[in-house]
Specification:
Structural class: alpha+beta
Distance between the termini: 36 Å
Order of helices and strands: HEEH
Number of strands: 2
Helix content: 25-40%
Oligomer: single chain
Shape: globular
């Protein structure tokens, strides 16, 4: 009941692909994945920063960690 509104807000506000992607079997824990496609890495970083801030600013959520992985033309 906490994760679904966050995922919906990320999608709506930032036009990203977002989903609950793991830890489904764990109580009170969730893994949320966010994907962004853009022409330049700086823009991707800005969008991901904003997504992370949105989640961190939710009082009912504690962010334990955040990881990023960028793919380029060569990948």
């Amino acid at each position: 009941s906490v994760v679904k509104p966050i995922v919906s807000e990320l999608r709506r506000k930032f036009e990203v692909a977002a989903a609950e992607a793991g830890h489904l079997e764990l109580h009170r824990r969730a893994l949320v994945g966010v994907a962004v496609v853009a022409a330049d890495a700086a823009h991707v970083g800005q969008v991901l920063d904003a997504c992370e801030r949105l989640v961190e600013n939710r009082p009912e959520v504690e962010v334990l960690s955040a990881r990023r992985r960028l793919f380029g033309d060569e990948d």
